Amino acid sequence: MPVQDSYYIKARASGGGGSVGAKIPKTGQTVSYATGDDGDLEAGRATDFFTLPSNNPHGNTNRFTDYLGGQSYSIGVLVDWSTYDGSTVLGYSGATGTNSTVTWSSALSLASSHSVSSFTSGWRLPNLNEAVNVCNFSLNPPLSYSIWFKSAFGGVWARSAMWTSTTSPRWSGGALRYRNDMGIFDFQGKTNLSAKDGFAVRDFTVTGTTLT
């Protein structure tokens, strides 16, 4: 088995929540390099990467909020309202361990045992689509959690490579990771110390403006 495969999966915007038939979100890229490219057409759902086309349950159009509907992130939970389906929404939390390389199985365990304030269970390592859904290709490096989340969570998002929970479709001994320094996804051997712990995601039940 290879230690590292040179096959790369380029990051692309993925769907997340919304009504049946809703468009996938915009990538966030606004600079055009050729007629008909992403920056020219800006195809996809939402006004822009950070703005929803309609209000979230808190009565504002912020795509990302803390669990109270503001943007203070005092307990380190970021809610992505682009994933809201009318009853549940996906939330992201800060790094699940120390800033060190871990195996894939360790990253899974760290995420599943993650706890934030009263949200002590239900956390998991994000899959590929959940990781890609927060990509903002107007930024360099092109991920919101490398710049936007870094600000929201006090700098804990400085990771050069982070595991996802998704196994490589080409090799079951490898799992996909995000290369923060290059803006791409690739895969590495699951037993290698080739990526860091990453972060955790959780599905929240929404009742009015309360998350549980």
Identify the strand order in the major beta sheet.
Answer: 2-3-4-10-11
Structural class category: alpha+beta
Report on the biggest sheet: 5 strands, antiparallel
Outline type: globular
Q: Strand tally, please?
A: 11
- Portion of residues in beta strands equals 25-35%
Helix content: 10-25%
- Head-to-tail CA distance between termini: 43 Å
Low-pLDDT regions: 1-18, 144-148
How many helical stretches?
Answer: 4
Listing every helix as H and every strand as E from the N terminus to the C terminus, the arrangement reads EHEEEEHHHEEEEEE
| Average pLDDT reading | 78
How many whole angstroms does the radius of gyration measure? Answer: 17 Å
The total tally of domains equals 1
Outline the structure in words.
It contains 4 helices and 11 strands. The strands form 3 sheets. A 5-stranded antiparallel sheet has the order 2-3-4-10-11, with no helix packed on it. A 4-stranded antiparallel sheet has the order 1-8-7-6. The protein has one domain (4-16, 63-211). It is α+β, with helices and mostly antiparallel strands and 212 residues long. It has helices spanning 38-41, 104-112, 128-132, 144-152, and strands at residues 4-10, 64-65, 77-80, 88-95, 101-102, 161-167, 174-179, 184-189, 195-196, 199-207, 210-211.
Brief overview, please?
With 212 residues, this protein is an alpha+beta fold.
What is the topological layout?
Elements (H helix, E strand, L loop, with lengths): L3 E7 L27 H4 L22 E2 L11 E4 L7 E8 L5 E2 L1 H9 L15 H5 L11 H9 L8 E7 L6 E6 L4 E6 L5 E2 L2 E9 L2 E2 L1
Antiparallel strand pairs: 1-8, 2-3, 3-4, 4-10, 5-9, 6-7, 7-8, 10-11
